[in-house]
Write a structure and sequence with these properties.
This protein has 138 residues and is of the alpha/beta class. The protein has five helices and seven strands. 36% of the residues are buried.
Amino acid sequence: MSTSTHGKKKPIRVLVSKLGLDGHDRGALVICRALRDSGMEVIYSGLFCTPEQVAKIAIDEDVDVVAMSLLNGAHLTLFPRVASILKERGVSDILLIGGGVIPVKDKKILEEKGVKGNFGPGTPLDIIIKYIHNNLKK
């Protein structure tokens, strides 16, 4: 939880997004529910978003976290593009995390480009929730 200007705790706001031409959203919907059930406020982008759309939603909704999901192999292109767009727009306080089918060799590349976590299928949901709590930037 982060603190508002009135001293009350406000819920962590998370944008869960499905980028590109990946129509498989079952895992993303499971993540949405788990984050919501843990007390976070969740916004789901829906399917087939562009990096530009994800960045715009993240800024417009003032989220703390963008959780991006891909199963189609485009993670090295689309995830870093979201990070670049946010950086170009002067946004540096949003935690970017990735998930989906991401080969181990690609995780370091994504980390270097600002996309953290990079959780694979079967990652226990409490691990993802703890990661968000421990790595918030705001």
